[in-house]
Amino acid sequence: MPKFTPATRGALERLRYRNKVIDDLKALDVVELQKQCKTEGIPYNGKIEAILDIADTRVLARFGTTTQEPADVIRVEESEDRGGSSDHDAGSGDVVA
């Protein structure tokens, strides 16, 4: 069996949990599903949409977001203005980090 990285293991756990929630919600009738939507603060837009929205909300609540915050981008002009050294200033043996 292949070894999983922590990120892969987390993604699999997240997917399994989402699938379990979807299976549990599929067994509910429309009235119960509407109650769940009201409890979770989700608009009811049909059974399938409601099931997916509730599942996504529960997964987000349990695991948090999987997206990373956008990185700060420093334009080259701003980098030079901040006093950063360029590769051209370094000697041949110097390491620029």
UniProtKB/TrEMBL annotation:
Lineage start: Eukaryota, Viridiplantae, Streptophyta, Charophyceae, Charales
Protein's name in the database: Uncharacterized protein
Biased composition, class Basic and acidic residues, residue ranges: 72-91
Source species, domain of life: Eukaryota
Disordered: annotated segments: 71-97
